[in-house]
Amino acid sequence: MFKKVLTAAAIGLTLTVAAAQSWPTKPVRMIVPFPPGGGTDILARLVSAKLSEAHGWNIVADNRPGVGGTLGITEAARATPDGYNFVFGQKDNLVIGPWLYKNLTWNPVKDFAPVAHVAYSPVLIATSADSPYQTLADVVAAAKKAPDSITYGSPGNGTSIHLAATILEKEAGIKLVHVPYKGSNPAMLDVIAGNVQLLSSSVPSALGQIKAGKLRPLAVTSATRSSSLPDVPTVQELGIEGIGEFDVATWYGVMAPAGTPEDVVNSVNAAVNTLLTDEAVRSAMQAQGAEPLAMGVAEFGEFLNKDYTAWESVVKDSGVQLD
């Protein structure tokens, strides 16, 4: 009897291993929570295409935009956790969204399995090329002399790009006037025209106007400089009074519904991490203003949990809440 039980267990283990080795047997869906053509979409399609090419998988991008990227995350949370549903999420919709939108029904830590961290992108603080502000220190000094006299534009209320500026205000002890726009481009055009004095933006959105000589970059908010703008200092290295360690960046990663088979998660994590060592892939990401950064599954999970907890107070301090 005992031998029969062992035999049955061995057969079950063999079948499980065989099933894992046969994955995937059909197309894999990668939900992209933003429209085609944007920064998140470009990175998601790059990763999906390169993984398919390297492993013979068929990963299909499925754009589900809306509600600041949280609509696609909600779709992923409801998806079957069978190893055929993933989502290419980012800080704004996974970590900030749950604190910002009061009607969301999912929790990024409890309702998702972290699969692979892909990249991060700093926020850029810039001004027009003919602005009197030559450095970020000039901005801080002027704002301390005249609070609420300097305006800055962002892609919208509650985005990580907006909230990065609120953290900067708090740590530098200044008060700026936020002018939210519906996207980076209209904010940038108003800064160039002189209607708004500062711009808080993603690096990719502003690169073209910086190269054209219409925008002056002042600082990036990550702990290290951007490879796309190597001559632009970080906020931290400027040594502005009141600002110590400063590291605020948008990150991108692959997630799956909670309960997705662990062997599938580990396989995708290993594949993504290998992909991030490819120089052509790294260069393509850096051209989009993103810095590739690999993590193990457990490391990414700890990172997600810590970031989710940390941004609760940031969103609450901002006073922004959306339906």
Short description:
The protein is an alpha/beta fold and 323 residues long. It is 45% helix and 20% strand.
| CATH level-4 homologous superfamily of the largest domain | Bordetella uptake gene, domain 1
Number of strands: 10
Find the CATH topology of the largest domain: D-Maltodextrin-Binding Protein, domain 2
Structural class: alpha/beta
Q: What is the overall number of helices?
A: 11
Q: How many domains make up the coordinates?
A: 2
The coarse overall form would be: globular
Round the Cα radius of gyration to an integer and report it.
Answer: 22 Å
Output mean pLDDT: 91
Please identify the oligomeric state: single chain
N- to C-terminal distance: 61 Å
H and E order: HEHEHEHEHEHEHEHEEHHEH
Instruction: Describe the largest sheet.
Output: 10 strands, mixed
CATH architecture of the largest domain: 3-Layer(aba) Sandwich
Low-confidence stretches: 1-19
The CATH C-level name of the largest domain is: Alpha Beta
Helix content: 40-55%
How big a fraction of the residues is strand?
A: 15-25%
Descriptive overview:
The protein has 323 residues and is α/β, with parallel strands linked by helices. It folds into 2 domains: 2-119 and 250-316, 3-Layer(aba) Sandwich (D-Maltodextrin-Binding Protein, domain 2); 122-238, Periplasmic binding protein-like II (D-Maltodextrin-Binding Protein, domain 2, 3-Layer(aba) Sandwich), CATH 3.40.190.10. The chain has helices at 2-22, 39-55, 70-78, 91-100, 136-145, 160-172, 184-193, 203-211, 262-275, 279-287, 297-318, and strands spanning 28-32, 59-63, 85-90, 112-128, 151-154, 177-180, 198-202, 215-220, 249-257, 291-292. Strands 1, 2, 3, 4, 5, 6, 7, 8, 9 and 10 form a 10-stranded mixed β-sheet that branches. Helix 4 crosses helix 11. Residues 1-19 have low confidence and may be disordered.
